[in-house]
Amino acid sequence: MSTPEDVKARVAHAYNHAVADVLELDFEREPFDVAVCVFGIFFFPDMAAALAKIASFVRPGGRLAVTTWGAGLFEPVNSLFWEAIGRIRPELHKVFNPWDRLGERKLVLDLFAQAGLPEPVVELETGSDTLRGEANLFALLLGTGYRGVMEQLSADERAQVLCEVVARTHVRPAVAIRTDVLYAACAKSG
Amino acid sequence: MLGPSIMIVSAPFAVGYAWATLRSETHRPLAKVALIVASTETAVLVYLLAQATVQKLA
Prior knowledge:
The structure holds 2 protein chains of 2 kinds. Chain A is an alpha+beta fold.
């Protein structure tokens, strides 16, 4: 039986890492059976170029899947958060809400077409989550793409934003938020 | 028999989903895995999680 040290040594030997621009990655072409992009494609300035690059690593006949948020993500918190930011730090208003770029089925289809890929099957899964109290709300604001804005606020400004959103969402005792997801998948043509 | 080779491109905040994808395939060893995240810290975290799982399996 292998000891943990034996296994760790084998894993360390098999593991490589690199820091690079995704568009400049230099993996061997087409070595993967599957590529999935999980709530990430909308962060790329050129989404079509990024998707085409990811697809270049998939073998012919392999599968490519993308998940993205549906329209209305985190509402009603989303609108109230941006309204608070607009009052407290107007220069930061909606400077970073990247998932808005891809929240509709047609936008996803267009993206795959622009990347030169076959038309994907796109499914919308409607969802919701429940925030219970300030701690949940704060976790949402710091644990998602809002964090970039939150980190630019002073401690007082953060408290003010949180106060406003708490007061208007009735997060105590609980508020339901939208978390619709779009799934898109296609087989790479040979 | 080896499982598929998988590339995962994930937002740092969604890396839990990436980890779930890896775990869902652990009934057979994956041929190759690549994880691309826009955060060195997140990559290190996933690596440590993978190591912890390997250690548990050993």
